[in-house]
Q: What sequence folds into this?
């Protein structure tokens, strides 16, 4: 299936959010050193959720229903009700587990910790029951069935982040595109635009 424009991963909300089908709002990417690769987002170099919370308190209310706030769902120190209030005040009705637990918490053997992903899914279920739409960031297609089963009617799509995507340099707007659906999968599937991944530094 040929990829077509679908949305973007952005450090600032669009002045006209209806211009893209969806936006993943990740203001914490602005805090990374200039020229950083996306893999830096998976490291404890910034307080990811606090950066988001501070940004939510300063932005003008958006009218777009297709904005998803990028959050670390396994943060043990976050006051989640504060995020619910701040997201609603900002007019943002969607959340995404970005960066995902499966690449933040790896075992010594390089495998994701199941406990982290379970906590992540439980937190996203909680956001769904609080009235938010969800997108799920996954590192492999093997996660799709579990995610669709757990998030069900709250799930708008899945963002696929294979290892090569993490070498993409961070930009203010990073294009996202549709990719082929896994057979039997009902959720739309997205990835960083192929041309961005192909231009990654070696």
A:
């Amino acid at each position: 299936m040929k990829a077509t424009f679908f949305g973007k991963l952005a450090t600032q909300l669009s002045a006209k959010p209806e211009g893209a089908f969806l936006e993943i709002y990740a203001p914490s990417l602005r805090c990374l050193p200039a020229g950083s690769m996306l893999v830096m987002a998976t490291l404890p170099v910034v307080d990811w959720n606090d950066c988001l919370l501070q940004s939510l308190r300063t932005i003008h209310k958006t009218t777009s229903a297709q904005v998803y706030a990028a959050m670390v769902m396994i943060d043990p120190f976050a006051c989640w009700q504060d995020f619910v209030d701040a997201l609603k005040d900002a007019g943002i009705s969607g959340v995404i587990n970005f960066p995902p637990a499966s690449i933040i918490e790896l075992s010594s053997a390089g495998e994701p910790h199941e406990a982290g992903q379970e906590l992540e899914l439980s937190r996203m279920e909680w956001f769904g029951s609080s009235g938010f739409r969800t997108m799920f960031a996954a590192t492999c297609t093997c996660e799709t069935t579990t995610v669709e089963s757990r998030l069900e009617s709250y799930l708008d799509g899945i963002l696929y982040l294979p290892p090569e995507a993490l070498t993409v340099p961070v930009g203010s707007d990073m294009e996202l595109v549709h990719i082929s659906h896994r057979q039997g999968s009902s959720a739309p599937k997205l990835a960083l635009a192929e041309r961005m991944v192909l231009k990654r530094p070696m």
About this structure: The helical segments are 48-56, 80-90, 101-104, 114-129, 144-151, 194-198.
